[in-house]
Amino acid sequence: MPQHPLCLSLRQVRYAVGSARSATGVQEILRGVDFTARRGEVTVLLGPNGAGKTTALGCAQGLLRPSQGTVSLLGEDPWRAGAGLRARVGVMLQDGGLPQSVRPKVLLEHVARLHADPWPLQDLVDRLDMSGFMGTTVRRLSGGQRQRVALAASLIGRPEAVFLDEPSAGLDPQSRQTVFELVTHLRDRGLGIVLTTHLLEEAQRLADSVHILKDGVVVRHGTVAELTDDGRSRRLIFVSPRTLTRAELEAAPTPMSLDGGADNEPGARWAAGGISGPQDLHRLTDWWRQIDLMPGEVSFEARTLEDVFWEVSVS
Ligand SMILES: Nc1ncnc2c1ncn2[C@@H]1O[C@H](COP(=O)(O)OP(=O)(O)OP(=O)(O)O)[C@@H](O)[C@H]1O
């Protein structure tokens, strides 16, 4: 039977905590979330802190029971499904949840034995560049090394769908590249990958599809191209000769972000999103006049996911 291209769908999922009788009453954390992920694609879930990402993923994985709506993971309701579904799904949590006193080699061999057809351990070790620390207890590993062990543990059962919560958090650029390559390899093998990240450049590079969650609802979704190319607005980059103060940034006519995650220092490149006409340029130059700033260089670029994220965050 051909596999359904969707590996995950959430339809109008609501999730509430508390009770009408408690002092704080009922709090709706998810307010009708629609979310889909396909096999052979990387689907990125973005959102500001507290948007409901972890809660949505908890519902998607069957850890939390939605108060309303439907969830389908690999064709089953994850809340009711048994071990059969869990064996087909890999989950990498942000904190890893790894036992501290075990060596990665022992741990991963143990997890591999729980699965009928595990991924050959040596291949995973090579792909994640882990051979240097397979014999070191988890307690002594660096944060980045633990991340890679947790990722390996989530993949060793050859899952059909995998949830990766900030897989590259705390990784150095080389290890991050290693993880990127593995995620790309998994996608090419047809896995459905659902990933959360706060690194918007990473999301832009990896995502086939993006959902942006805010206040418990998906406010934007689409491919990176669909989200960033609205046919009219662009981002304006300017080089600031000095550090910009919080008050100056708050007075800006459009959200300002540091290009490429640089520091707010003299010579930093700032990006102003959503510039769609002379009126926006006028507001920007007016702001420069107000704060007495003469930018070093000014140029236009296509919008990025970061611009879209900022627009959503402040709207
Ligand atoms: N069981 C609970 N009881 C009360 N409030 C909760 C509960 N679970 C989550 N929340 C609240 O719901 C909101 C969404 O939480 P959630 O962890 O899903 O957000 P998030 O998008 O994953 O945030 P972050 O990026 O900070 O990890 C937060 O304000 C959180 O405090």
Automatic annotation (TrEMBL):
Domain ABC transporter residue range list: 8-240
Record's subcellular location: Cell membrane
Top-level lineage group: Bacteria
Pfam families documented for this protein: ABC_tran
Keywords, in A-Z order: Antibiotic resistance, ATP-binding, Nucleotide-binding, Transport
InterPro entries for the chain: AAA+_ATPase, ABC_transporter-like_ATP-bd, ABC_transporter-like_CS, ABC_transporter_ATP-binding, P-loop_NTPase
Major subcellular site: membrane
Membrane-related topology note: Peripheral membrane protein
Keyword Plastid attributed: no
Example of a GO MF term: ATP binding
PANTHER family recorded: ABC TRANSPORTER ATP-BINDING PROTEIN
Record-given protein name: ABC transporter ATP-binding protein
Phylogenetic classification of the source organism: Bacteria, Bacillati, Actinomycetota, Actinomycetes, Micrococcales
